[in-house]
Batch of 4 targets.
Target 1
Amino acid sequence: MDSNVKNLKQADLYIFKYIVRLLGVGEYSAAALVTWGIHTFDPRPSSVKSIWNEIEVSTKCLIMSAGSVGKSYSAMAWIILDWLRDPEFTSIKVISTTATHASLNTFSTLVRLHRQAVVKLPGIVTTEYIGLDAKEKKSGIALVAIPIGDDGRGRLKGFHPDPRPKPHPVLGPSSRIRLAMDECEDAPIGIWEGVNNILLTSADPRSVKVFGLFNPKNPTSPTAKSAMPPEGWDAVDIDKGYRGSNRWVSKEGWNVLRIDAKYTENVKLKRQIYPGLVDHIGFRQLELRDGGNSIDYWSQGRGLYPPEGAVGVLVSGKLINDARGEFIFVGRPISAAGVDTALDGRDNCVLTVGRTGMASGFTPKNGRPIRFKEPRSVLQIDQQFILPKGDTKKMGDAIMTNCMKLGVSPEYCCIDSTGNGSGVYSYLRAIWSEDVQGIDFNAKATEIKIMEQDQYDPVDLYDGIVSEVWFAFAKWLEFGLLGIAPGVRRDPLESELTGRRYVFGKGRKLKVEKKDDFKKRMGGKSPDFADSATIILQGVRQRESIMGTMLDDDSKPLHPSHSIPQHDETAEVEWLAETGV
């Protein structure tokens, strides 16, 4: 006990100076324990140690990991400590894509850690900045929020080290910059151009650090390309790693770390050593799913891109439930129809009817209307019903008669023209209109992007048009562009949508499972209602080359925990002066 410490204020200052001394000699783990205590942040798990070590030794690194291993939380704790080590000459940018709500999750973690320290830490704190001067953001931690649809170009312009007035004996002659990209697979392509520009100034590793964190999901992403081992992803042994290690230098020169949940303490010892991290029960559930070959098992459990043949689920029940409601259209929408044809056998001929156009909002089932920031192209599914089966003429007449009654013009009627359906398609074009649309599910995927912000065309991502239409349906659901009227029967539509799976096919293209495989799993039942729903969307997309958009909807109120009050700037400046930092 230091006898010079007379009160709590002096004690806080004493502890803070001790933290700074620990950081000055690189003892970040010890500094973390003093700053937060073991219950707020525990630096002991092997995954945390590996993440911190990789960031500390690398100028540029990518950390691909399983879920719930402390990836993001550990990185944010390191950022706070690294800034505290040299706050006046350290500038840190945290990349956020609002698609993943990282601006709410990642940066709020930084704010929470700053405020939960055992002593009052220096710095002005806002929802997007922690630092010494809110007007001069070259000495703080700043959020770079990239709106969905922004390509990210120019967002990192001018982000480079500057000369110090006086060289630091340990940290060198330049200021320090750090770029942290959480869930970097979601970062737009322009960010990677900015990253490459930043790395041109990385001759002194003390000055520049760039690191990205992600769960490996999309092997076609720029992140996957940057992280790929020299011999490709197939060279990584799931249990032995790449050449005996879970660290490697990629083709593009990135240091890469893979964290596998199977080898974390909670899973290996089959008991909860570290609360909050993945445990053996959760890992076992992933391991048992789809015979140990689910996409979630590989990505969330093993921290590796799924291999060819890995299985995933396209549509969740939550997405369907969230889509229940009615769009508020701007002007008069266009009626549309999709038909899954069936002439005989157990399959049904299902007609799906809906409306497409620009909408200004959405009224959820049993909810209040939600207004969109901007109108967007949407599809409303209004009803589904079974048409009587028969020969080509009877089927074609039934489709035409029902569409005409429901106000669907031929150019917005789209039918399955595969196999026996080709005869119905030809008949309708002959007796009704050549504008009737058809989809041959044996064809390759199209070049019509599903979303405006997509980096690739469907033909580059999906193994055939059948995969394209299903992934398009899932994406439009995900981004709130597809509504299902409350009157549409839940079954069998929902069970068919949630039951369809996909795999990584050749060249790791995404491939929806064959209909015959679905029927075998589902006791011979065909996904006719779901197929019909995907066909109506594909018809709308094809007719006008309509693409969805990942527009943000800022009309919804934030959760109360996301509302972060401002600190008293005067008090912060006084504290800063007292600490001498």
Target 2
Amino acid sequence: MNITKHQKCCVLIFVVASFLLLWKLDYAPFWNPDEGRYAAASMEMIAPLPGETSSWIIPHLNTLPRLNKPPLVYWTTATFYRLFGTHTWSARLTSAIASIGIMALLWWLALAIWGKAQGHRKAFFIMLVWATALLPFALSRILNTDMLLTFATTLMLIAIWRTAEDQPSWRAFAAAAIGLALALLAKGPVGLALPLLIVLVWLIMVKKKYFYRYFVEHKWSVLLAFIAGIGLAAPWYLAVNRERPGFLAHFILYENLGRFSGEKEYHDPSSPLFYLPVLLIGLFPWTLFLGTAAVNFWRERLQPTRETRARLFLWIWALLIVFFFSASSTKLITYILPALPAFAFLLGDAIAEFRLPQRSWQWAILLSAALAAIMGIVMLAAPYLKPILKLAPAATLQQALWGGGAILLLGAIGVWAAIKSPSWQLKIMGSAALLFTLFFPSAAGHFSPYEDISAIFIRLRSQLLPEDQIVEIRTFQPTVIFYAKRPVTVIDQPNTSGYNQHEFDTSPLFAKPLSAVYTMPAQKNRVFVLVKWREFPPGLRQLPLHYWAGNNDYALLSNRPAPAGWPIEFISPGKRSKIIPFPSHAN
């Protein structure tokens, strides 16, 4: 295949993968609490709630400043709200577009390492892995800060690698400076610490003398890029610190170092091996090629070539981030996302060079056929297994299994085609992975047993009057703010949303004692109360409150009777959109 055909394949996979990352971004309501926090705080930037003023400097959530994260995720999401309206899909554009940007950067790196002829061929597989691996694909469709941080660190690291390997140019140093600024605005000091650690270790491992030579020869360019990156991000930090003295010290020492050391901990302690299964599952269906990538690098590690140095850089990039967060007291699945572009690159490189041994295709087809047969049996038995195993509705399960069976069979055909006609390898492997990602969003909303209160408040929004009040007891679901477009009063719930503790304790919307519940029935205005079934406060059922709506986890009560057509009940996740009469959770 000549350069033009390889280039066309790259353009095709980039366009198709971009479509899949942007397709059906409203596959499910916002996931609580994190997506709800970012979505609601971004909405408050452009549409302030009663009692607050619009501010693009200090993000607010439920009218209180929320400064435990820098503002980039709020700025981008609020911008998309302005352009397209406040929708679930417009909020998730932030992560989806950042992911597409990462895919373009990996393509750029492949061309820089191998040139056009080889680079386009490898870039095809690299972009395919990034767009279809489970964790990158899933997090590309969830509103979070980590995809923005990953884009920023990827830009910075690739630009720095170009300055060290190629004839340095002002464009590469400018890209590194922009990446640094974006990283600081996306996540804070970790956006500087991680890339700096990776680059220093790589420069030392490549050649100790080169480490010193690099900084001596390019000292002014490096210094200028560093100052420019800090300078682009500094105005926001300084502006907030001017309005709120002590912010910088609190943000760096408490929000960042405190989380790493465990001084500030909102999550259960995790094993040092926490990220091993996350990595293996997160890179599915390409996980097995990790071994191939490691073996290929080990065999060629002593060769003084550009390609070997690039692979060393990528392994350092990938593994240092995993080790860094494995040492952290706070561990979340999303933290190692900045390592995954490097892993995707190494996997795509390994897949591009992979060739199956002779006759192994027979075993591959046999295994795929056996798995497909097992799935077929499970499909037939799904209606009978559902009540025993508490599975999703049978129709949803059958849909998933049919999709999985089709993917397995397509994979078996792909193995056969790759052996019989290697030129088909690109098309079949790509088709199998893309079919998986096409199916995944449709299933995600059905299989995820999350607390879906969105349907209740989407339905309630048309009934709300300006003077109505919404109260949450022993819970804080930020999506309520987004869907109801008004503040909520939170009763008997600790501060777990990154608020200043003094402001939280003195706010009329937070830190309300449980005794406040018992004054609600007598209020003149209408009050809606959201409470978990399993956490009903003592005596709440005896109050003259009326049932309006509910789902598996929550009940919505009010001090006024429900109108005609209510109460309603939403059963999630399988029957989220189906309204049924309320028979099961009577007062």
Target 3
Amino acid sequence: MPESPNSTPPASPAPSSGEDHGRGLIRNAGTVGIWTIASRILGLYRFRLMAQIFGATGVADAFNFAFVFPNLTRRLFGEGVLTSAFVPVFSDRLAKGQKDEANRTASVLLCRLFYWLSLGCIAVIACAEAVRWIWPALRPMDKDDLLLIRLFQVMLPYLIFINLAAVMMAILNSLKHFLLPAFAPVLLNIAMIAACLFVVPIVGSTLHEKIWVLAAAVLIGGVLQLAAQFPPAFANGFRLTPSLDKTDPGYQQVMDNFKPVVLMVAIFQINVMVDNLIARYLISGDGPVTYLNMGTSVYQLPWSIISLALGTAALPMLSVFWAQMKKEDFVKTLLVALRLVIFLALPCTVGIMLLSDDIVRLLYGTGRFLENNGEPVRRTAGVVMFSSMGLLFFCVNSILARGLYAMKDMRTPTTTSRDSVAINLGLNLFFVVAMPFLVKPLIPMRAALDSDRKVIGTLLDVLIAMGGMKEAGIALASTISNAWQTWMLARAVRRNLGSDEKLLPSAWNAVAVFGGNAALSAVTGYVAFLFVKSKPDWEGFLTLIAAVAGSLIPFWFLSHQYFLKHIPGRPGIDGDFTVDRYGVKEEMWPENLKFEYAIYSTIFASAILGFAVWAIRDSLPPEGGLIPVMQRALVPVVLGVYVYFTAASGLMSREYDELKGAFERRIRQAMYLLVFVSAGIAFSSKMGWI
């Protein structure tokens, strides 16, 4: 259970409205999101350059695998559990006016983190050297294996810089400064892109020699990210006092929060390493590690924009509200974050799944990545599709975990992560190792099956395809395990709040009602689609109309009846239906119905988006050169976004209204960013870089 503050908090103003919480949260998240978009776009461009130069070769696999460990430690010691344990303590002292104590705690954390990471880095490098000598006794070491170990040793110090930079980001976010922390990750991508464009072409004659340029760029990017944090931190009142005093009360409190979870989170990070080991050594051929990393980087673009931006902005606010025991404000802020996450993540999931192949061709379809008749594109697209299925769960987990950290409940995220890791590992082995053997006898059965047995043939095709998923199976395993964790985290938040239905809605009720409505409506839509398709004279546009009508009308009717039954007042009579949702004033809506309406409107608008993207994609020219690929990947995205927000506006979505109000002042910034990115793409195309 969460701890209570040790002292009585000072008097504070009355809680503000949920809309005020939403505006403040969205405003801060917008600052993070703008630069996160820039960082992720540059990151995808960096992957494209690497795909063009190194392709899906053993050299690319060695680099991506060697970079996994130092990058993952950031989630453990940097922007993950450690900073989540640190921000509530730091924010609590700032809220109580104890700025000197907060600075002292941050200084001790930074110094001790630097000390232990440096020692650990030296020890791990020594262990890697020992592995290099022992390895030949266990199995033959090829040139790529040796390269992997050497790259790992050289890039490992990156973890020191990136973890210290992540703590500095947490300090700045707690001081209500979000711009520089959001911009800092851009520097790594700039360093690596510059290396690919200007240094790689003139250094070395083989891929094994050229890859060292990128290793050096990783270290330079880490140093730049750390150095960029100090000037704004000092300008906002942070004072670094070198100290290793582990008796500092704030540091001890951070460690008390951190210790219960460090082992389990370490196991989780090891599990990610095991995923890459499974991809490298249990999937035959070159490229699976590259496919896995490049594929997951696609869903990380919306994930970072949505959950990372909102979670980064929400954690300090949630920590302050919990420290001051303002439960209602805490819940309102948490629900605003969850509603916005669902509103933004679900349509991204639908769009990415439908356009996975076209997106991969646009992002990575160049140079060596088109070898073997485009096999790298197809296999990466499989990872994109199955990892994007879990986008909603990844985003919601990020918000729920931060809510629990703000409550100072570190144990629940740990135990759920532990169980999720076990599920994920078991599913990985099932999809990658067991499934191919299980479906092998089905292949001759499928070949001998009569052509008129379509249902059985379709089922066998699905099973055989699952047996050949390879690295896509790893992505699907992650999606399933994260879905389970979402459920457990939601239950824990309700438990810590006392399971007050009026204070926090039941996730089960919303999922059962609207998930059930959506499933039933999908079945009716599919039946209508098959019926129309079976009529030769009705084929064509009518099949789309039948699928849309058969899916959307039942879902709307069932959900409409639900709200008419549960909403307070007299819907459609006591107010103006065109202004107030169901004719009921905003202040009359309880929090649970607001949350449920968010799920309903998001599912409805996402379904409309899905049908629009489906129709637009199939009407565009087939894949070919760069222009057709851009059309198939970008045109459905642009029109799909327009359709989604138009549908959300028509449904009077709160999330649409909140985002529109908060971002009206940021549209100009987004336009500047769009112009900058477009100019960069045009210039790169003219120079032959893409």
Target 4
Amino acid sequence: MRITKIIFLLTPIFLFFVFFSCTAKKENQNIFRYNEAQGIENLDPVMASSYPSIWPLAQSMEGLLEYDFDMHLEPLLALSYTISQDALTYTFIIRKDVFFHNDDCFPGKKGRAVTSHDFKYCFERVCDSRTKSRGIWLFRDRIKGASEYINSIKENKFDIKDISGIKCPDDTTLIIDLTKPFAPFLSILTMAYAYVYPREAVEYYKENFGYHPVGTGPFKFVKWDFDKELVFEKNPDYRIKDKFGNALVELDGFRVSFIRSAETEFLDFQEGKFDYHTPSPEILGQILDDNGKLLPKYDFEMIKQPWLNTVYLAIQLDTSMPGGKNNPLSLNKKLRQAISYAIDRERIVKYVLKFKGIPAENGPIPIGMPGYSKDVIGYNYDKQKAMKLLEEAGYPGGKGLVLHLTISNEETQKMIGEAVQAQLKDIGIEVQLDFIQGSTLRSAQVGGELPFWRANWGADYFDPENYMALFYSKNKTPNGPNYTHYSNSKADSLYELALKETDFPKRQVIYNNMERIVIDDAPWILLLYNEILYLKNKRLKGMYIDGLNTLILKHARYE
């Protein structure tokens, strides 16, 4: 009798704990978890210049337009848009069914509808140096009145109150006038700098707005315990539904941890504490076979996909710059071509990078970027061509030629440098490697101090202009990202022609022709098109990382 009584009394308690345990487990399983070893500096869109910040923002904030999974540009908060005949005026009609997240910054804590005035406010805030904006370059020299507005603040005059080229005739119409045609303008509006958020949140949280973001996206901010955890939950009022009319967002939220150790993060990933992990080269060596395939003993999924990031060896062509003086590569095109043929890109990808990357045997525009064409033929490994061009360049068998190649002292980059050194030695060229810190290399690159160095360019937005701008003579550093000071009048004409052309297929033809000129001149020795490689929970579906290395969670679900 006593035993029966005890069992009777304990049964509800037991059932409670079973129910609680199952419920907690279910909730736990519907929350996406990842680690950010670098930490997150700030979540104010005007400071969104790094992946750690952009990832959470991309889940919680939105802009006028977005690129979908298939890389098609689609309206997002804009219902529609038109471009004037002269490609100078862009008119956007704002959706009426978009609301900011419910938040303490609003009366009654109820989020209000987004208007065209919110976009004007946010775009002007990007151009305001008092916000510590890192995106001032985005609209400067492009939108009418932006440069004057920026300079007024910079010079402490404050006599210009707004950007004249951004107009809001009513709550749903946004008109933007450009100073000159800039065909990629729609693409740059998909960047985090161009996300919309309410003035109320900035004024309510003041200097803490970057630690309490308020947007319109599928997930809303909950809390941030610094160096411990960042938490977002599903936005229950998100407007977008699936094709059956059901809520699009299936995840209950996502959480970010801040463990510094890559090894600890990988162990936690294996134990199911994280759903995503970017493995270090050391971990890749443990989990991959000789063909770069995941060993069958591991119960997770490995994803490898194009990343809009081109890796190359750069050459300073300008003999008036420190890196161009007495540089045998600067004025000798055949020597640059010889080196281009001497590089065995496939061996570097296979043996140095463990198959993480694609040999760059086309142009500067990488695989995955709109505008990439396999019909643009670059350099492949051809020792005989390399030797012949080396002789024509005045260095038969490499005699009398010594090159200095500057490489970041990061371990993988050192290995790439050593592989290049060995391959050039094979045709008789002596290469001395100079290893320096990555930050020092980047500064020296901008200053034109390096004669020959390893570099890479990752896209800021989904448009080939972002790559071809590096070969436009008016963009020579410090005025732009043309680090090699490359100059070719035919290439310049094509670049300027493409900026005026709003029909993308026609623009692609122009950029591909420009690529062919650049390939022949060889200011870059192309090495590889980088790839994104990550591990994920097998049960997780619908999550993806786009070509800009931005995490997209609104379609994610667990099966």
